[in-house]
Design a protein that fits this description.
InterPro entries: DUF4783 (IPR031977). The protein is of the alpha+beta class and 133 residues long. The protein contains three helices and six strands. Strands 2-1-6-5-4-3 form a six-stranded mixed β-sheet, with helices on one face.
Length: 133
């Protein structure tokens, strides 16, 4: 009986830590989604890794965090947001998470694919695709 109590305490501590990590990651993800809805490249870039792969309508490359912000700022100026919604989210292991969404601008729909990793409880985007349907 005496051995069960420390095991139960350890279990509940680990559970609460994992729920905290999940909750903080979800709050960050909401900020990312709102950044798309508002067309804010600056807010979105806060969640980029130092190097980001971008593919915007077939024009692709590896960009620094600052360069990627400028590319997205140009995209948002050219295609101002009307709506953004997440259609799917998935995991590859515990640290890699991706989202598939739809971005709408001037009556046109774009498929958004966001790929990121969770580092020390923070979601960092390493790849972003924006492809017109």
């Amino acid at each position: 009986m005496n051995k069960i109590v420390p095991i139960l305490i350890s279990f509940f501590v680990l559970l609460s830590l994992s729920l905290f990590t999940f909750a903080s990651t979800e709050v960050e993800n909401e900020v990312i989604f709102v950044s798309f809805k508002n067309g804010s490249s600056k807010d979105l870039a806060r969640h980029f890794e130092n190097g980001v792969e971008l593919n915007i309508n077939g024009s692709q490359g590896e960009f620094s965090k600052n360069q990627a912000e400028l590319v997205l700022r140009d995209f948002f100026k050219k295609y101002p947001p009307e709506d953004f919604e997440i259609l799917h989210e998935g995991y590859s292991g515990e640290q890699i998470k991706h989202y598939i969404g739809t971005y709408t601008s001037m009556g046109e729909a774009y498929r958004i694919l966001i790929k990121g990793k969770i580092y020390q409880e923070v979601y960092k985007i390493y790849s972003l695709e924006i492809i017109r349907y």
